[in-house]
Design goal:
Alpha-D-Glucose-1,6-Bisphosphate, Chain A, domain 4; about 50% strand; globular; alpha+beta; 3 helices; seven-stranded antiparallel sheet
Length: about 140
């Protein structure tokens, strides 16, 4: 099955702690990668552990789930994404640098279904082109 990984970084005027706190709110993840809508979030204490998501692509909605894969004290959080056609992960890594923090978002995606495999070039190109502006907007919320 075809797969790709995309990455983009921004520098924000916020502490890693405040960014990490925002990453525990489900709505913070809206607009990154394929995620347009979020609902049914789950938490373990104050930590976000999963949610359901929806994306619009090829003129129709696609639904999937996100499950936390990692959340480290050093400033990284990762969610595994799963849907009928595509699986993958979104990882956010925070790098403190004085009064600013580097935020790197890495999106890995792999086709699961026949439709995604058949049109993987188009899917991958949309993810590749969309991620930089999504990450820039993501960084502005901090």
């Amino acid at each position: 099955m075809p797969s790709d990984t995309f990455s983009h970084s921004v520098t924000v005027q916020a502490t890693p702690e405040s960014i990490d706190a925002a990453l525990q709110r489900p709505d913070t993840w809206r607009g990154i990668g394929p995620i347009d809508e979020i609902w049914d979030a789950t938490h373990e204490g104050a930590s976000l552990t999963g949610f359901k998501w929806r994306a619009r692509a090829a003129g129709r909605p696609w639904e999937g789930t996100a499950e936390r894969l990692a959340h480290t004290a050093s400033g990284a959080i990762a969610f595994g994404l799963d849907s009928s056609e595509i699986a993958g992960s979104i990882t956010v890594v925070l790098e403190p640098n004085g009064a600013t923090t580097g935020v790197t978002v890495r999106l890995s995606a792999q086709s699961k279904g026949f439709l995604a495999s058949m049109f993987w070039g188009v899917v991958a190109d949309a993810l590749r082109r969309g991620l930089p502006s999504q990450v820039e907007a993501f960084g502005e919320q901090f």
